[in-house]
Amino acid sequence: MIVHPELRALRGDDSPQRVAQDTLIGRMGDWRNTPDVAALEAEMAHLDRGCPLADCRLLAGMFQQGGPAAADFASELVRLNLEGLAEAPLGHVPFRHFTDGVHSTLLLLRSGNVTLSLVAVDGEGLAGRPAPVTADFGPSEVWEHVLAGGADAELVERSGPENGPAVFDRRDVALQPGILVCRLARQQAMLLRGVERCLVTLRLQRRLRDAGPTREYRLDDGTLVHQAAGNVGDSRTEMIMALLGRMERAEAAPVLADIAREEGSAALRWQALRECLALDTLTGFTAFCDVARSAEDELAPTAGALRSQLIEAYPQLAEIEPCPA
Amino acid sequence: MNLPKLDLSNLPDLDSLTGTFGSLVDYARVQSSDDSIVILMTFLYELTWRGY
After folding, report:
1. Cα-based distances in Å from B28 to A94, A220, B23
2. In 3-state terms, chain A is what percent helix, strand and coil (to 5)?
3. Which of A191, A23, A266 minimizes the C-alpha distance to B28?
4. B22-35: pLDDT as tens digits
């Protein structure tokens, strides 16, 4: 195995790598502190609070069809990073990133549920992948401005019941520099069929709070094949609850009962009820009764049915108050 | 009151299960339309990162 002498030297002394990383982190810190980028982050915070895009001057300028602001913004960022990498070629650009060899994403800025990402899709790699068989629809708004390259894409609009079968209205869209695609991802998905060279876009996305799960449907017959939590916080809470349950931390039961009673995703609240009931029968069953009694709660019928089954199996549960039949 | 200890495995799930954020079936193509993968990576990183 050949190991470059510079890399071999880092095994004994990693300080050059730390210096390289500090260089890139410093550059991006300076970039974020420039008045325009700081103002952009402030606008993203407004957007996160529900403000319309049109009221965010800089963002609206960047996500305006044919406008130069998005390309200027990305070019400046790329220039700064290339200069940094020329100085420190072994450094990592300090942005959260993903790549699978075809799709690559850099998360440039984030404020709460709003993200600004630079996305690249390699055409040759994409051509080697199987055609998509499903489309996913999640609770977010997406604005995507094409900066370079081109693609044959398809906008897939969904109607029909949420549990399927979905009905799709599909239309072609040609992506080329300057084109802006805005969509409510809960209704509309975008599929890339073919990409010319490398498609580069700047993507602004706002995840909507408490707006249901992401649902994935099969394109040929509209069958619902999967649903996933619509926001990362719910999944995190669910994992924490499962851990507390396995650790038998009964003192967590009141907190789980509160989660079950609060507004939020039905999936998360149901898991809170189950974990709570398994940890502490009294606290959990009381929460079950509260949910079952709440007429407007979508979990009420399921909670009511399970409550009846449990009382049948364990009649002493009927003594837990307040729990009118 | 003598209450039973209930076993989690005996408490049913909802009819439609909901997977973890970012868990989609047609994984390879999801990235073309959505930020969930990069956020999922961030999420996993923050759950597992222990510093240098």
Report:
1. 24, 18, 11
2. 45, 30, 25
3. A191
4. 888 776 566 566 77
The 8-class DSSP code of residue A49 comes to T
Task: State both tokens at A241.
Answer: 């609850």
Paired tokens of A2: 């050949």
Helix axis angle for A232-246 and A253-261, nearest 10°, is 150
* More reliable by pLDDT, A148 or A9: A148
Give the nearest partner residue to A100 out of B11, B17, B28, using CB atoms.
B28
Q: Which of the four pLDDT bands, split at 50, 70 and 90, describes residue B52?
A: very low
CA nearest to B46, candidates A321, A309, A235: A235
Q: Are B26 and A100 in contact (CB under 8 A)?
A: no
ipTM of the assembly?
0.80
* Chain B residues within 8 Å of chain A (Cβ atoms): 1-8, 11-14, 16-26, 28-43, 45, 47
Q: Locate tokens 């009673």: which residue?
A: A261
The C-alpha atoms of residue A85 and residue A73 are separated, in whole angstroms, by 19
A133, A205, A284 ranked by CB distance to B26: nearest: A133
Nearest to A134 by CA among B33, B11, B50: B33
Q: pLDDT by residue (tens digit) across A271-320?
A: 999 999 999 999 999 999 999 999 889 999 999 999 999 999 999 998 88
Please identify which residue in the block is written with the tokens 């995190």.
A236
Question: What one-character-per-residue DSSP string does A175-222 give?
Answer: E-TT-EEEEETTTEEEEEEEEEEEEEEEEEEEEPTT---EEEEETTT-
Residue contacts between A and B (CB atoms, under 8 Å): 152
pTM summary value: 0.87
